[in-house]
Task: inverse folding
């Protein structure tokens, strides 16, 4: 098995299991503020210690994994649901005005980063998890649209598409029965890579105050709250930073491994070696 796929899958599984476990059990209440436990060192029922508010760091990391996955799933879902149909339509009508319009609007959206969209949406609707999910999702739509369009262009010149057209199948039926199944592997890889980007974006937005609001734990806000104690108590920044790094590395390796596993051309190259 591909080593990247195995390592990435293991890291992702670790994050997912931690998030699922947090629904049923955490060592302590992650939102409970207790001045008596302020900056408590690891040990005595607190494996990673407590933060400046006396909250258990390990419990916050567990619930923070849940928040991160929730934002990533919704954001990537928004991007896939919006971007994939647009990319398929543009790929099936490459010389039409509709394709040109879709790709130019796609380029326009691509020029707005998630942070800027979050600031704009936050100014109108207020900062929060929902705002972050929408901003990250909309900012990721162009990536899915481009991947779907490029893959659709390759599929549309194949013999079975020509046969389907000769049989009188309409564009919608061709898209559903022939195009989507053959570009699904590329979309899965793109979803994995986009998930890693969404994790970083959510952490950055929470760090800047435009993401998940207190008291809900978030890895990005844990970093923000620890910055003033970076030199005196560096462990407060170490654990959320390490969690973000592990999650991002896991999804990136998983995406690369899935690409190698699902792409027959890459499999043939490895076999020849």
Result:
């Amino acid at each position: 098995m591909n080593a990247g796929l195995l390592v990435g899958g293991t890291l992702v599984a670790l994050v997912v299991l931690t998030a699922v476990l947090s629904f049923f059990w955490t060592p302590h209440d992650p939102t409970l503020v207790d001045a008596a436990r302020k900056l408590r060192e690891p040990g005595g029922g607190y494996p990673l210690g407590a933060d400046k508010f006396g909250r258990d760091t390990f419990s916050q990391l567990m619930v923070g994994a849940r928040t991160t996955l929730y934002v990533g799933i919704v954001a990537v879902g928004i991007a896939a649901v919006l971007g994939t149909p647009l990319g398929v339509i543009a790929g099936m009508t490459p010389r039409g005005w509709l394709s040109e319009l879709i790709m130019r609007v796609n380029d326009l959206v691509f020029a707005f980063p998630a942070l800027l969209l979050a600031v704009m949406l936050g100014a109108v609707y207020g900062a929060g998890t929902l705002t972050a999910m929408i901003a990250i999702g909309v900012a990721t739509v162009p990536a899915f649209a481009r991947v779907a369009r490029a893959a659709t262009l390759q599929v549309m010149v194949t013999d079975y598409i020509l046969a389907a057209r000769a049989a009188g199948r309409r564009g919608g039926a061709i898209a559903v029965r022939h195009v989507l199944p053959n570009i699904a592997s590329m979309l899965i890889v793109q979803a994995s890579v986009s998930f890693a980007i969404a994790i970083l974006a959510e952490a950055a937005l929470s760090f800047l105050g435009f993401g998940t609001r207190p008291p809900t734990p978030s890895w990005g806000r844990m970093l923000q709250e620890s910055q003033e104690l970076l030199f005196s108590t560096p462990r407060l920044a170490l654990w959320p930073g390490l969690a973000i790094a592990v999650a991002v590395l896991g999804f990136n390796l998983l995406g690369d491994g899935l690409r190698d596993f699902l792409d027959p051309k890459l499999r043939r190259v490895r076999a020849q070696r």
